Amino acid sequence: MKRGVKTNKRHSKKFLEFYDILAPKVYRHILFRVNSKELAEDITSQTFLKTWQYLVETAKPIKDFRAFIYRVCNNLIIDYYRHRAKEPVLLEHDELKKIIEPEEISDTTYEENLKKILKALNKLNDEQKNILIWRYLDGLSIKEIAKITNKSRNNIYVIIHRALKNLKNYVAKNKEN
Amino acid sequence: MLLKIKKIKYYLKTLKNYPVDKNWLLGNRRQLEIFMSNNPIKLQRSTNYWFNKFNFMNILKTKYVAPVLAGIIILVLGGSAIASQNSLPNDNLYPIKIAIEKVELAIGSLTGNNKKAEIKLKHALKRLEEVQALIEEHQEDGIVVDAIENLEDQTEDALEETEETLEEENGEETLNKKVLLVQKLEQLTERHQEVLQRVYDKVPDQAKPAIERAIERTQKGHQQAIESIQKDKGKHKGWYKDEDEEGDEDECETSITCEEDQIASASGEIDDEGCELMICIPEEQTATESAQ
User: Fold this and answer.
1) Cβ distance A73 to A137 under 8 Å?
2) CA-CA-CA-CA dihedral for B252, B256, B262, B265, to nearest 10
3) Phi and psi of B273, rounded to 5°?
4) Which of A18, B178, B289, B292 has its CA 20 to 30 A from that of A7?
5) Interface test mutation site (partner B, options A17, A39, A109, A141, max chain B beta carbons within 10 A)
6) What pLDDT is stored for residue B28 in this prediction?
7) Quick one: which of A31, A52, A166, A21 has its CA closest to B36?
8) Are the Cβ atoms of B18 and A31 closer than 8 angstroms?
9) Which 61-90 residues of chain A touch chain B by CB within 8 A?
10) How far apart are CA B115 and CA B117, in angstroms?
11) Model confidence over B264-289: pLDDT tens digits?
C-alpha cells in the first residue's frame, strides 16, 4: 500500500513536470492551428486531462510522452472541427506584436512579413499546416511527426517540402496584390 | 523583395516566442492537480515485484550476472557478435550489435545501481561514433540523416534515464555513484559537442536542426545533472570536498569572446590575482604551431 502511494506520487510529480515543459508548447501549437485564444486554452487543458485519464484507465506507461500529447491534442482539434464548420479566423494584429522580435529584423518588416506568412499558413491544407507547425514551431523531429501522423519519414519530408513551396507562393501572391 | 524558403522557416521558428499567459498556465495546473488527486493511477504489479517476491530470482541481481551472461552470448553467437561491434548502420552485422546492446541493457536493469543510465550513455556515445564514421566514409545522405536522428533519440533517452537516476533520493553511498555517473555524462557531452560541431558543415541540410537540437539538449542535460549533484552535495555536506576549497583556480576567468577566425588561448602571462591571462589568436597561427 505504502509503495503504491509513493509510486503514485512520483507519477503525479513527473506528470506535472511534463505539464510545465509541454503546456506552453501545446498551447502555441493549438493556437496557431485554431486561431482562437479561448479555444486553445480549452483544448490544452483537455489534452492533459485526457492523457491523465488514459493513464488511470490503462495503468500503462507512455513511451514517448511528447508524441502522445501531440496526438491527443490533434484528435481533440479534429473532434472540435467535426462538430462545427471551420471558420477562417486570423489572430489579432496586437497579438502578433507580443512575439519578441529578433533584433536583426527591423520592426516594420518583421511584423508585416509574419502577418503575411500566417495568412498564407491558413491557406495551406490541414495536413501541410499541421506538419509545418510541428516541425518549426514545436521543433519535433521528422521521426516524431511520422509517429504522430502514422506516415513514413519520406512522406513527411515530401509534405514539408511541398508545404514550404506553397507557403512561399502564397506569400509572393499576397505581395503582388 | 520575395521571401526565401529559408527566411520563411526562420519566421515560423520565431512563433516559438509567442507569450503564453502564465496565470492561466498556473491556474490550469492547479485544476489538473485536483483532477489527478481525485483520479489516482491504480498501479499494476511491475516485473520488479515478482523479482522481489521470489528470493531465488535475486541471484540474478548480483554484480557477476552481467559479465557471465555477456560471455554466454558471445560463446553462443561466436565471432559475429565480436565482429558486429565495429559495424555501422548500413552493415549486415549492425542488427546483431543493436541486439547485443539490448541484452546488455536488460541485464543492466536487473543489476540496478545506476547501471541502466550508464549503459544508455555508453550506447549514445557509440551512436555518436557511428555518425562520425558514416560522415568520414561519405555515406549517402539518407543513411547519415537516419543515424543522426537515431543519435538524437538515444541521447535523449540516455539523458532522461540519467536525470531520473539523479533525481532518486538516496543516501551518501549512492551519491558517490551519482558523481561517477555525472562524470560519464560529462565525457559524453564533451565528445558530443566536439564531434557534432566538427561534422556540422558536412552533414546534409535536413540533418542540421537535429544536430542543433542534440547539442542544445546535451548541454542542458549536463547542466541539470550538475545542478542535481550540487543539491545532493548540500544534503550530505562534508562528504564531497568542495571545489572551491581545493584552490583558487576556479576564480580565474578562462573564457573570453574572440572573433570568428580567432580562438582563445593561454598567453603564459600571470596577472596580479595569479590567473593566467587569456588572449585571442588567429586560427592559422595555432595550426602552424601545432604542425611545428
Assistant:
1) no
2) 0
3) -85, 5
4) B178
5) A141
6) 92
7) A52
8) yes
9) none
10) 6
11) 555 555 555 445 556 666 655 544 44
